[in-house]
Amino acid sequence: KTVGPRGRHRPTAVEARLAMAEFISNPLRSSDAPAPEVAAAMAAAARSPGPEVGATAASSADEGRSVEVRGLAGNLVASLALTPGHTAAEVKALVAEAGGPPIGSQRLATQGGKLLAGREEVLKHVGEDGLLTLVVVPSIEEQGRDLAARKGWQPSESVPWLIVHRGFIHNSPCSDLEVQDFKILMMHVPRARFEAGYYVHVRGRCAYMAENRVAKEKLFEAWDDFVEVYDPKPTDTAVDLYRRFLDETSQWKEYTF
Q1: How far apart, in whole angstroms, are the C-alpha atoms of residue 61 and residue 125?
Q2: What burial class does residue 115 get, using C-beta atoms within 10 Å of its C-beta: 0-12 exposed, 13-18 middle, 19+ buried?
Q3: What angle do CA 17, 19, 25 make, to 5 degrees?
Q4: For 93-120, how does the pLDDT look when each residue is reduced to its tens digit (9 = 90+)?
Q5: pTM (2 decimals)?
Q6: Is 246 exposed, middle or buried (0-12, 13-18, 19+ CB in 10 A)?
Q7: Where in 171-224 does DSSP place strands (E)?
């Protein structure tokens, strides 16, 4: 693994939010990378995935290959030897091990602008250039504090960055918020519900047996993966999407004592 230059400017939550609006009207071109301040803007690529790499990517996924992970300014972050089956989540872990940013602050995108979900196999989407773009975004803690401050919401008393359901905030429709703010709110829903005493268990099994409970880390990872690539509709609410996620996307069910 090769680690590229370190110490580049990491955007604050406010800078990231402003940069996203800029990116929507001026998307990333592989030959003209924007400055590091617009790093978090690539999250908008989930709504406009760009061209697929097609047969080239499919054929290259049949065997292992070297993939370079570069920042938006073109700086080399890591050079990785990947094999078929490596997921985006696993690549993020390798990047962190190579000295890159924490896993939760990473977003991986193809040169065509497609944002990779955590469970997607990377080699199926990497083109002939063997490049991935690493987008560094503020942590969920930073984004939570920023969003709560901007909206005047009162966060959890025990977890000061966590946006809880006080005042029915989780029922806010997407139309009342900017899309990226809504997606930040989505990420807080299961965490706030665990904080409030809710649990998730494997559907069809006894909810009161500890071995049937779903580890919150596993749930958060799956939910964050869903949020990363989901395109919210104006009428969506964060809490309804979470319930639908449990009902339709997973084999899990929520309960409380």
Answers
A1: 8
A2: buried
A3: 120
A4: 999 999 888 888 888 988 888 888 888 8
A5: 0.65
A6: buried
A7: 198-202
